[in-house]
Specification:
This protein is mainly α. The protein is built from 8 helices and no strands. It has one domain. Helices cover 77% and strands 0% of the residues. α4 runs antiparallel to α5 and α5 packs antiparallel against α6.
């Protein structure tokens, strides 16, 4: 019973939060991405220099590759309704996974710390930890980039991003679940760890291959895109805290408290106060 309540609450939360995220993305981030993609296509159309001795061979190989693999071109949604629709689907799926994570953390807090804490307040704290761990802390070392800009090697960025997320999440967990005074020192050390290691940096020009006009435009778009992605993430986690807190209070919490009461984990007074 509690599992069904959890799934339906997460799904309802995901639909609302995913819709909010899609709307904010269309308002803040999508125009910047579309503008940058125009310059990215111009860069892709610029032919790379070929050595004269290898020119004939390269041209023949390219023609053969086009002939063999032209039909296997990677699919991508068309701009407009199709792109918006698939973006909404992706955002709902992402919100569903995050809602399950948020509910799991909230359930642990209710079971282990206090059954009397309010659902909205608890969801707000968990959502704040999610924003810090999954967006703010990683973005301090690896900020969002518009299409067309070069970046450090993907594998190195993925490893550092995972380290930053794990460090920030660990710091939030230590601060939230440990009662000893030394928890603040450990949390600070965890937060500093990814920056002691150092985020991978591109060895070269991030805008190599673009003309002067495109470089100026992409630099402006890049700065705006950092703020746009921040607003998208902030709206996502704020709506997750609000909608998730209400869904947890309405569907998940009653079943969880009944399970805890039946197992003798929470005393009747705490359960009644929480309700």
């Amino acid at each position: 019973m509690i599992f069904q309540r959890l799934i339906w609450a997460a799904l309802a939360t995901a639909v609302l939060v995913g819709g909010v995220q899609t709307g904010v993305q269309r308002w803040q981030a999508a125009p910047l991405i579309l503008a940058a993609e125009v310059y990215e296509e111009q860069k892709a159309e610029t032919p790379e220099p070929v050595a004269p001795a290898a020119h004939v061979h390269a041209e023949a190989a390219a023609h053969e590759h086009e002939h063999e693999h032209g039909a296997a071109k990677e699919w991508e949604p068309a701009n407009g309704f199709e792109r918006i629709g698939w973006t909404l689907v992706a955002n709902i799926l992402h919100a569903f996974s995050m809602a399950l994570l948020v509910f799991a953390v909230m359930g642990v807090v209710v079971a282990k710390r206090s059954a009397a804490v309010g659902s909205l307040a608890l969801a707000g704290w968990v959502a704040a930890a999610g924003f810090v761990s999954l967006h703010l802390w990683p973005s301090l070392g690896l900020h969002a980039e518009v299409p067309g800009m070069e970046a450090a090697p993907l594998h190195a960025r993925q490893l550092w991003w995972a380290l930053a997320v794990a460090s920030a999440a660990g710091a939030c967990a230590v601060a939230g679940f440990v009662c000893a005074a030394w928890r603040w020192l450990v949390a600070a050390a965890l937060l500093a760890l990814p920056f002691i290691v150092g985020a991978p940096q591109l060895q070269g020009d991030a805008l190599a291959g673009f003309g002067p006009e495109a470089r100026v435009a992409l630099e402006q778009l890049g700065g705006q895109f950092i703020w746009a992605t921040t607003w998208v993430a902030l709206s996502f986690w704020a709506s997750m805290g609000l909608v998730g807190g209400l869904a947890f209070q309405r569907w998940v919490r009653p079943g969880l408290l009944a399970v805890l009461k039946g197992a003798g984990v929470a005393d009747a007074g705490a359960v009644n106060a929480a309700r």
